[in-house]
Amino acid sequence: MDLLFGFVIGILASLLGMFLYITLVVHSEFITGIQSMKSEGHLGKIVALGSILDLIIFGVLLKMNKELMARGVVLAVIMLTIVTLFL
Asked: The whole model's pTM is what?
């Protein structure tokens, strides 16, 4: 159960990071920003920037001795990477 919870936290944190980057740095709507980044071939970079929050959450979970949740966060990053490769 903790692994699944960590996975969900990892996905949501990556989406939040991507949202913050697109809205604050690119100054665009989220969906249109994703579409334009995909057409320009920069979608992988956006996902990588969004995963910075996952790194922070991973460290916090390890500090709190929540190893299974931390594994779920890592699994979420791996799954996002694989999905990004095929998009």
From this structure: 0.86
Distance of CA 56 to the CA centre of its chain: 11
With both helix axes pointing from N to C terminus, report the angle between 67-86 and 43-50 in degrees, rounded to the nearest 10. Answer: 170
pLDDT in tens, 1-46: 899 999 999 999 999 999 999 999 888 898 998 888 889 888 888 8
What is the distance between the alpha carbons of residues 22 and 5, in angstroms, rounded to a whole number?
A: 26
Spatial distance between the Cα atoms of 31 and 65, rounded to a whole number of angstroms: 36
Do 11 and 80 form a contact (C-beta atoms < 8 A)? yes
Cα(73)–Cα(10) distance, integer angstroms: 4
Q: In angstroms, rounded to a whole number, what is the distance separating the alpha carbons of residues 33 and 3?
A: 31
Query: What distance in Å separates the CA atoms of residue 18 and residue 86, rounded to the nearest whole number?
Result: 18
